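Hey, I was hoping to borrow your eyes for a little while. I've dropped the whole record in just underneath, so have a look:

——
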Amino acid sequence: MKSQMKIQYLHTLSQTIRIPSHESWIILDSKNNDTEQVIILAEGAKLDFYSARTSKKLNLSVVHQGSNSHSRIQCGFHASENGKIEAVIKSSFEASHATSEIHILSLADSLGEVLLDSAIEIQEGTKQIVGRLKERHIFLGNSGKIRGIPALIVHSDQIEASHALAIDRISDEELFYLRSRGFSWDDATGLLLDGAVSEIFAWLEKVNEKIYIKCKKNVLGM
């Protein structure tokens, strides 16, 4: 049975959003418009944020003002030929006993551009913080441009923080494995990309399968 948790759409909300204490929100960025957004989490608040963007600018700041607040930010970007995406994504902690996970996947076709700055900032005096930041960028063409600058800004002890960055192409080894089992080059590439994009939106599938499929198709260019 699918969860009945309500999905909020970013383009219908005010520029600054406050999630009240102990409420859980799912917010979907589904429009390709220039967006500047601040989301403030109170004590015990929980945010699941999903972006399936193919153009324009996203400036997102998530602020953990309350203790025991949690955020999960999952972004799938696809800059098609001659397309451009610019994103600044930041999660900051002003209270203790809080967690944030940022996971970003971007795809760039020939002449496509993805310009991304992401950060987790942990302020002085906070403790028992968990912050994880992961970026993966995949070139699909020969002349795309990808810039990824993940950053950890830590001013406190008693925290657990990590960040990772990978910029690559679909590997020959992965393609060889699938082609040896009868897949064409296009089908093998599509299967590998589908797996990467599915990972970004996996939890969303439990909430609303139709929106999950729509986000996947948007990022995959289907």
